[in-house]
Amino acid sequence: MSKNLKRGSSLPYSVSQNFLTSRSLINRLIKMTDINNGDTVLEIGAGKGHITRALSGCCKNVISYEIDKKLYERVKNSFAENVCLYNTDFLKCSLPKEPYKVFANIPFSRTTEIVRKLTSADSLADGIWLVMERGAAKRFCGIHRSNLNSLMIKPFFESKIIYHFNRADFHPSPNTDVVLLQLKRKDNFDMNPSQRRDFYAFLSHSLKYGLFGSHALLTKKQISTALRLAELPQIYPSGDVMYVQWLCLFRCWLKYGKNL
To answer: Are strands 19-20 and 40-44 parallel, antiparallel or unpaired?
Structure first.
């Protein structure tokens, strides 16, 4: 997990990571998930291998990625046979086609890219557990206010912060609060994955220009009628928009007003 790397920093990952090293804490975190001995689990950032070893003892297979060459060389021969470790960038790798889950202590500097890759894949993980900065996790959950990232996740995953770390849990200690974010795949998606691109376009435009006004994608009457027929509250120009309202208006736009 990166310790607030500045953009363009040339520091190696081995110098700029915060490691979870307590075996008891790592085991307690894994027990908070539904990872079991029949699962294939992806780990992003093997680091010193503490989480990798814990995962290998409670699941069928571990596929682990470590971009840092020094860390990779340090741990590559120290794992059980059910661990496949790759010295490569996870963001450049294909995701499994067979069912899988994810448990990882990820680089802070790559959080958005990693979450976007995992939540927009053709084959979505059954469950994702990521150690990350609290502020980032709150944004992905849409806590206090929905945003483009949280809204793109919601059709396919239930998001929740399930653990708050102490800074002393890490070595070295991070200078920010850290949590464990859980993303559980929904049994029934709220939209077809093929509609992601359109949903992104609709949200991006509406968040930039607003739902009302000269650049709006739907008329006030379309918005009012769609919400009324769905038995949802009306939206006021200065008010927040709930996820179910966004979903309702997106479906209306697909059917009647698509003009991007």
So the answer is: unpaired
